[in-house]
Amino acid sequence: MPKPHSASRRGEDTHLLVVGATGTLLPAVHAATSRGDLVTAVTRSPIALRDLAHRTRGRVRPFVRDYEDPGLGAALAEASRARPFTGALLYCPLASPLTVQALVDAVPRNRPVVLLLTSAHAAPTAETEEGPAWSPARLPRDSRPSPGCRLLVLGWARGAGAARWHTADEISAAALAVLDAAAPRDAVLGEVRPWAARPR
Fold first, then answer.
1. Distance between CA atoms of residues 124 and 134, nearest Å
2. Among 14, 98, 133, 144, which has the minimal tally of Cβ within 10 Å of its Cβ?
3. What is the pLDDT of residue 87?
């Protein structure tokens, strides 16, 4: 399991904001709560998180709201008033840029925020032609909602036969590793080249 991020190493109470807690990032939620973190999980349905909150003995707090609600920012500020967020894991590929910005802005600027991006962000274009190597440095500037936001691009895994998409466990482990890194960094999980090898 990755080491806790800087807030935990200083002995502060860790409070993570997570989008994707009932699916792709569910293993990350289990890992975070098992090490003592409090998790606020954004969901449209309280039913999806009811059992999770029970199994984690209340360390998961459902934040029931449609994340495209224009009042999201104010609601998150209220939810973190007593215990500010110390980090975030955000997997919301269908969210609008304004929503992503509201989620990022809910976390103080000196705290780590990891935004997970699908492999589509690494697709070759006229400006980024197919080549042997690719890194998040080649992403457009507007891919990063704020200067300190850490990006994790989700590629694919090479198997013995055909390539495959990564599992929730693999994605969660990578997301926590980027979150817990002492220095801000971006990362790519798996492969994004050659593009023709991308799983269908």
1. 10
2. 133
3. 98
Q: Whole-model pTM? A: 0.90
| Confidence at residue 2, expressed as pLDDT on a 0 to 100 scale | 46
C-alpha span between 5 and 184 (Å, rounded): 11
Q: Are 119 and 154 in contact (CB under 8 A)?
A: yes
CATH of domain 6-197: 3.40.50.720
Q: How far apart are CA 178 and CA 180, in angstroms?
A: 6
Q: Where are the domains of the chain?
A: 6-197
Mean pLDDT by runs of 10 across the 200 residues of the chain is: 46 86 94 95 84 86 88 95 97 94 96 97 75 84 93 92 94 98 96 90
Instruction: Kindly state the DSSP code that residue 137 receives in the 8-state scheme.
Output: G
Peptide bond before 194: cis, by omega within 30 degrees of 0? yes
DSSP H or E run through 200: none
Which residue(s) pair with 62 in the sheet? Answer: 41
Distance between CA 86 and CA 110 in Å, rounded? Answer: 9
The span from the CA of 23 to the CA of 68, in Å, is: 18
What does 148-186 look like in DSSP terms, one character per residue?
Answer: T-EEEEE-EE--SSS-EEPPHHHHHHHHHHHHH-SS---
